[in-house]
């Protein structure tokens, strides 16, 4: 839905963002820095393009980087490259899996012609920039040696430069929801920020992940009904799996999805 708003909005700021890779990259850098800082503050080790928080063998947080920083960066980048290579290959192989039996040579030609080098570069470069920046700040900047959260924020911001290799709408909108969820968790975890009684009740009764999922699903359903031609093919197929039929049958399908039926 955010992708739809960005594509259709006629405001000067959004129009400038659509046409300028520099502005979009700067926005992604800011979101990336916030996400990495939130991950370290919350001590989360969840899916993202780099790991901000690591646990030592004794269960405590590692505040230092490995002594052999160069070897550490190369090892992490190598892992990221293999992941990016696997994702890029699967992205092209799965829609053409029938060619594997009919014409393997043609499948290889299609893979080489349509291989997503931008996605591979983004996944690899993001990890490389983050790990290298984190190591450099830990070793050469005294102001960041004692603050792992600040180091993660700066390194995450620098790593966001990798977005220029793969300026994609889906990749841009993904950190928006991630940052919203992490921001809410940071707000609830922080003892210095005031929290009204209603906010505490909402957080206790309804997890923020369910709120975001329900809201985004409802917006996508509305988008598919009102503006069906602006739903990309991936989301259309995904939503069609749970909403067979049209008119009243389709409406009942959406209602069942939203209400958990």
- Report the strand count: 0
Low-confidence segments: 56-64
Fraction in helix: over 70%
Largest sheet: none
Strand content: under 5%
Based on helices, strands and strand pairing, what is the structural class? mainly alpha
Distance between the termini: 23 Å
Task: Compute the number of helices.
Answer: 14
* Rounded Rg: 21 Å
**What would the principal axes of the Cα set say about the shape?**
globular
Task: Encode the helix/strand succession as letters.
Answer: HHHHHHHHHHHHHH
What's the overall average pLDDT, rounded?
77
Describe this structure in words.
Keywords: Membrane, Transmembrane, Transmembrane helix. With about 260 residues, this protein is an all-alpha fold. Mean pLDDT is about 75; it is low at about 55-65. The relative contact order is 0.12. The chain is built from 14 helices and no strands. The chain is about 70% helix and about 0% strand. Helix 3 packs parallel to helix 10 (about 170-190), helix 4 (about 70-95) runs antiparallel to helix 7 and helix 7 (about 115-140) runs antiparallel to helix 9. The chain has a domain at about 15-165.
Topology:
Elements: H1 2-8, H2 12-19, H3 21-42, H4 69-93, H5 99-102, H6 104-114, H7 117-140, H8 142-145, H9 148-159, H10 169-189, H11 197-205, H12 208-226, H13 233-240, H14 247-259
Helix pairs in contact: 2-3, 3-9, 3-10, 4-7, 7-9
Transmembrane segments: 21-42
Keywords: Membrane, Transmembrane, Transmembrane helix
């Amino acid at each position: 839905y955010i992708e739809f708003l960005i594509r259709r909005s006629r405001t000067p700021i959004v129009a400038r963002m659509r046409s300028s890779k520099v502005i979009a990259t700067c926005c992604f850098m800011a979101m990336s820095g916030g996400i990495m800082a939130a991950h370290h503050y919350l001590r989360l080790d969840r899916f993202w393009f780099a790991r901000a928080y690591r646990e030592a063998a004794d269960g405590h947080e590692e505040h230092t980087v490995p002594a052999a920083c160069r070897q550490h960066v190369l090892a992490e980048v190598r892992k990221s490259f293999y992941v990016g290579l696997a994702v890029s290959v699967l992205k092209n192989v799965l829609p053409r899996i029938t060619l594997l039996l009919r014409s393997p040579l043609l499948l290889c030609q299609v893979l080489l012609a349509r291989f997503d080098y931008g996605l591979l570069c983004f996944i690899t470069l993001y990890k490389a920039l983050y790990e290298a920046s984190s190591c450099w700040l830990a070793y050469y900047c005294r102001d960041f040696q004692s603050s792992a959260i600040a180091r993660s924020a700066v390194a995450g911001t620098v790593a966001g430069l990798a977005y220029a290799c793969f300026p994609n709408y889906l990749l841009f909108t993904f950190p928006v929801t991630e940052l919203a969820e992490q921001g809410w968790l940071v707000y609830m975890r922080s003892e210095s920020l005031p929290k009204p009684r209603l906010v505490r009740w909402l957080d206790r009764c309804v997890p923020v992940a369910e709120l975001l999922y329900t809201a985004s699903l409802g917006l996508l359903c509305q988008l598919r009904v009102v503006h069906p031609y602006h739903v990309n093919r991936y989301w259309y197929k995904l939503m069609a799996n749970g909403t067979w039929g049209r008119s009243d049958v389709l409406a009942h399908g959406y209602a069942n999805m939203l209400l958990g039926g």
